[in-house]
Write a structure and sequence with these properties.
The chain is of the alpha/beta class. The chain has a single domain (33-200), classed as Glycoprotein, Type 4 Pilin. It contains three helices and seven strands; from the N terminus they run ααβββαββββ. The strands form two sheets. The protein has a five-stranded mixed sheet. A two-stranded parallel ribbon has the order 2-6.
């Protein structure tokens, strides 16, 4: 074959007109298939994410509950007895995060930092004068958790710690307001209500 013929053949093989692209119908079919797959998979993915959040919330309240029990065992004191009772009386221990609304739980006026009991030994608001004992048989041996975080929905874990003292017969909860961010469980309830996530420790 002559060189000029070879050159013309090569040009023809590389010509853009010889490369077939997707037709409009094919593109529409592909997009339709993708849309169907997204519609099928999205609920499954969202459920998986929510299940993972619920699992983390349950694990968090278990860890906090165990830490509270260790604190009581080590110090011989209930966290409720260490709450600063200046007006307005502090009756709740609250972790970081938004203080969820709903049924009679902690607010900015009656919450004390849960971290000040479990992470550092600085309960109350008296600047260290009312700490847990730091020496002796019964003493603070923390930190009982490495750190506290908000619940999976951005709200604070709460404990109605004042129920732990004074012969109080009301239940004590380590609780999160759950996915809807609103407490349905009353502090006096003996069982969880709504989508709240919690563990009763008394």
């Amino acid at each position: 074959m002559a060189p000029s013929s070879i050159f013309r053949s090569a040009l023809k093989a590389r010509s853009p007109s010889s490369t077939r692209g997707f037709t409009l119908i094919e593109v529409i079919v592909i997009l339709a298939v993708i849309a169907v797959l997204v519609a099928i998979l999205t609920p499954t993915v969202l459920k998986y994410i929510e299940d993972a959040r619920l699992s983390r919330g349950l694990e968090d309240v278990r860890v906090i509950s165990a830490a509270i029990n260790d604190l009581i065992k080590d110090t011989g004191k209930y966290p409720g007895s260490m709450l600063d009772q200046t007006a307005p009386a502090n009756t709740f221990l609250c972790g970081p995060g938004t203080l969820a609304g709903g049924a009679t739980w902690g607010t900015t006026t009656n919450c004390e930092s849960l971290s000040n009991h479990l992470v550092i030994n600085d309960p109350g608001v008296s600047g260290g004068t009312d700490n847990y004992p730091s020496s002796g048989k019964f003493r603070w041996r923390g930190p009982y958790v490495q750190g506290l975080q908000e619940d999976p929905w951005g709200n604070a874990y709460q404990i109605n710690a004042s129920t732990l003292v004074g012969g109080n017969t009301s239940p004590t909860w380590v609780i999160s307001a759950g996915p809807d961010g609103t407490f349905q469980t009353l502090t006096t309830d003996t069982a969880l209500a709504g989508d709240d996530v919690g563990i009763r420790i008394k």
